[in-house]
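Collaborator request, handled under Task 6.
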Amino acid sequence: MTFSSRFESCMSTQNLHTPSGIFDTVMTANGTAAAIQQGIAKLGASTTISELVGAGILSDTFLVVGSVGAAYYAGALVGCAASAAAGSD
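Structure tokens returned to the collaborator:
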């Protein structure tokens, strides 16, 4: 299995959508987590992924995630990225 497939599987078990092609590598997952964290710092702890898209912090591809809390999504993203990176290809 690849990082991407392990990551998407992990997020799926938590009923969280992942935009196609965004989480292909550890680096892209880390970059996205950093962008979400910066958005939370700017807009507040209760902001949603949809609000980050509306503010231009995340791309429109994240609209599939919807109104999930950004902090919750970021936590799941980091956990799943660590789990996927620990797996072996």
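The cover message to the collaborator said: "The radius of gyration is 12 Å. The chain has one domain: 3-86. Please let us know whether this matches your experimental observations."
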